[in-house]
Please model this.
Amino acid sequence: EDSTDWNSYIFQILDKQRRLGILESTHQFLETLHLREIERTREILDQLQMGLMVLEGEEDGQLTHFNHRLEILLNRDLSPWQGWTLSQIQKTLEGKEERAVWNLTDPWERPSGTELLPLGASWIMRSIFALSSHGMVAVFRDVSFEVESGRLDPSGLPSLDEAIRMLSRQIGWTIRHTGIPFRHFAVAHLRVAHSQFRSEAVDFADPVNRIRTLAGILFSERGDAIIPIRAGQDDFLLMGAQSPDRCKRRSRIYAASLAEAKVGTLQIGWSVRSLDQRPLRNGFQLAAELKRILEEQARVAEEALQRSAKQSGGFLYTDDGGYEQFALS
Model:
């Protein structure tokens, strides 16, 4: 009986060690696979001339991964900072522009965001994405040519001509691959009113920073083929192939984001044209047709914005229903 108990005890120890060995082997395999995928991502972004930075951990994350292209874009050797926390890195920075590049605290508390930043003689586009495992990934791209050629303005949003080109490419691609023509085209005039910008993390008193921050929220929510362009100090135009319901839903997303950040109230007016009789078609004239439609609808959207400024809520104009007021919450 004593021998049986001893054998059972030995078996339990061996079985436990066997299971621990399997777990350890699995962990090593997954860790190797993770590092292999990170290395592959580095190589891809290097070829695309895009910089990669990975910060792991909550709030003050550690710099765990970066690629060579990022060092070229930032003109700095990052290897001494491997494993440093974000706050440790920020304490070593001197220039205002470099500190802005490493200011990775998102003032909008959003899962992602895009911002255009000056760095020396260059313009850097930085996109931040949250990791589900507590941390963030930042991707950097040199867009100096796009800014100098007028395709992007200093707020990070495309110019009117570039926005038209982007939208015509999106519509053309969809038509070619689905054969379905677009039935609606929408233009919005958006304004942030009564702004009381917070001072933490970003100097909102600086008009340039205010514009870039407002542009960032439009960039991070420009799904569904919506393209934003700047139209004034706190004014933006949005355009895209959107149905009336989608326009209302998108407006509520913007209003909720502004309310959460406590930076101002949203005023917005939409003009939605039905294209059932003359759908947008793929072809060389698509960009010219979009620009003409935009100019026509922008005037109506501005009138809808004026109604929004006088009354609470957003306003939307359609050919069938005229002006319609809708709630922003």
User: Anything to note?
Assistant: DSSP finds nine helices and eleven strands in the chain. The longest helix spans residues 2-47.
